[in-house]
């Protein structure tokens, strides 16, 4: 049987210059280009303002981690949570027999549903079910 070496530390990024990773280096280069363009185009006050904002963004997006996740992943999670609906609506399954001939569903107030009352489970029955689950089905009750 062949033996293969399983890769380890796959979540560690490659380092290119000391402790700087490739992603951090690219972010720093982009920030440097933006600051250089601001230096050539803007006056002193505008350059200083844009340079500070750009440097802050480079530091935050390049080096800050929140709960072990990169900052841009954290921001993406926040945006996704904001866009996601707060209430999830459950639509009851309508059986085929309740669909009209033209393919539309019948109005919900005309559909007859079978109500099944909730049954309580006796403590002994619950204990037996727990044993069956815990033993992987070996206990038969």
TrEMBL record:
Its domain of life reads Bacteria
> Where would you find the membrane-spanning parts of this chain?
20-39, 45-64
- InterPro entries per UniProt: Uncharacterised_PrgI (IPR024414)
Q: Which Pfam families match?
A: PrgI
Q: Which UniProt keywords apply?
A: Membrane, Transmembrane, Transmembrane helix
Name this protein carries in UniProt = PrgI family protein
* Source species: Candidatus Kuenenbacteria bacterium CG2_30_39_24
Instruction: Provide the organism lineage as a comma list.
Output: Bacteria, Candidatus Kueneniibacteriota
């Amino acid at each position: 049987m062949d033996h293969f070496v399983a890769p380890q530390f796959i979540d560690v990024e490659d380092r290119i210059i000391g402790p700087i990773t490739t992603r951090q280096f690219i972010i720093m280069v982009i920030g440097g280009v933006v600051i250089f363009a601001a230096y050539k185009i803007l006056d002193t006050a505008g350059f200083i303002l844009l340079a500070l904002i750009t440097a802050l963004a480079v530091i935050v997006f390049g080096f800050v981690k929140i709960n072990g996740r990169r900052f841009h992943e954290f921001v993406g999670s926040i945006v996704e949570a904001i866009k996601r609906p707060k209430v999830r609506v459950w639509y009851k399954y309508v059986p085929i027999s309740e669909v009209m001939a033209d393919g539309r569903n019948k109005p919900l107030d005309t559909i007859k549903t079978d109500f099944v009352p909730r049954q309580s489970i006796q403590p002994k029955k619950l204990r037996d079910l727990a044993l069956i689950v815990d033993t992987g089905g070996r206990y038969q009750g």
